[in-house]
Amino acid sequence: MIDASGWFSEVYPHHGSAFSLKLKAKLHEEQTPFQKIEIYDTEWFGKLMIIDGCTMVSDRDNFLYHEMMTHPVLYTHPDPKRVWVIGGGDCGSLKEVLKHPEVHQAIQIEIDERVTRLAEIHFPDLCSSNQDERAELLFIDGIQWVRDAADQSVDVIIVDSTDPVGPAEGLFNEAFYRDCLRCLGPNGILVQQSESPLFHADLMAAMHATMRKAGFTNTRSFLFPQCLYPSGWWSGTMASQSALTGFREADAAGRPFETAYYNTEIHQAAFATPVFLRKRFADL
Amino acid sequence: MIDASGWFSEVYPHHGSAFSLKLKAKLHEEQTPFQKIEIYDTEWFGKLMIIDGCTMVSDRDNFLYHEMMTHPVLYTHPDPKRVWVIGGGDCGSLKEVLKHPEVHQAIQIEIDERVTRLAEIHFPDLCSSNQDERAELLFIDGIQWVRDAADQSVDVIIVDSTDPVGPAEGLFNEAFYRDCLRCLGPNGILVQQSESPLFHADLMAAMHATMRKAGFTNTRSFLFPQCLYPSGWWSGTMASQSALTGFREADAAGRPFETAYYNTEIHQAAFATPVFLRKRFADL
What we know:
2 copies of one chain form a homodimer.
Chain A: E1 7-12, E2 17-31, E3 36-42, E4 47-51, E5 54-58, H1 62-68, H2 71-74, E6 82-87, H3 92-98, E7 105-109, H4 113-122, E8 135-138, H5 142-148, E9 154-160, H6 174-183, E10 184-193, H7 201-213, E11 218-225, E12 233-240, H8 249-253, H9 264-270, H10 275-281
Parallel strand pairs in A: 6-7, 6-9, 7-8, 9-10
Antiparallel strand pairs in A: 1-2, 2-3, 3-4, 4-5, 10-12, 11-12
């Protein structure tokens, strides 16, 4: 909601709180077949994309999310040649994936082409690698994509979706995870954004349980700050048949690209599990 | 500010953003000689204390701040017997300090007695160790306290203050740090809350520089989530003549008390420095 003095607020009704951003100008608004997309210029956070009333991405702090949804998983996999990004229409995750020379093919599967077309206009930096010859942008249903894809056809699947309501709901269930597992090659890893440790620890625990029920033998969450998302603290969760404890530390230390948040210390730190979360995960 | 539908908002004017909490009831309001204190019951965060319009402490998420302002520094010092908490009137830091059996004396020096008296009523859990025979509660100016205190009379100084404006301003300057350094014994450590890495990286860098100018040879920041504070991401900064790399890991692993956030993994993780901060600190 936007009030009379130009503040956008995202209310977290189950957690009695809200985060607000001061807007400078509305740049775009449209209802797509899937969702309502709004683009604003803000006072301090740069450009801002809102989908169905939830903040998705800002110029100022997206580096945290995009770096953490990509580099930890890519430096955990021993040889990530083929990568899918499910969702991720702003292309920020795709851009980070393509920084890795070991990646031969990166396919982004976004259901709503308008997210990408608007990102190309309003977030050109996030889309600056879309012309990379290793990149392929598909605008189809990610659930259907993994259902139809060949066995062992990918090394890393990154699920960069909205919250588990609306179009993204089907990305958080056993059938989807089972399809992902079938598509993953040896040592393959699925990583998915898994909401706030402070607000959604139950969802995180349920996600681990569902991933294991789908056949993944190892699951592991990692944490990072994300000012724009509920509670300012966010998580990703990896699932694999391999141990998820491998870390190509020398490769990460010698990474041939710039980051703003990620380095080898941050990689290892992100996997530290607070006492209260360890208790939630104890029965898994 | 509180709107007509019972939401309290703290606006971060320099960062075009705000965090809001849904209130259930106002429990208290008073103007002390130092500041305005308000206490509310909230919908999800439990009890909330606001000082001069800034959120100070809530039942729900204070464990993050209080554990991180105490256990990392106490398990970095080789033998912390004598501890001062400057500020910290809600007594949450004092309570965490007193969990350490190696601490023989813990003195809280809070300028505004009303903060503590109201915490005793509204945050009884945070004040549950105030009767510990090792604890002493003083209601005097912390700046004057360190100016008057004897050389080498303390092992750890914890500066648990409000933001560097108003009554707390004098806790962020060279003269204060110089007094702290004089009061600290061998291996002594000063630790101070140092605001948000995302919003206040300049302040953090300035704090490191000022601490070094005051004579501390080593300074080191650590990071943790804190939903209630600006950007949801917060920091503390340690200063010492010793290396600050010691960690009594076995003692921390075998700690004889409960925590909700802190453990040995979290201790080490908190010191990981993101690339953008490392660049800010590079010239120190």
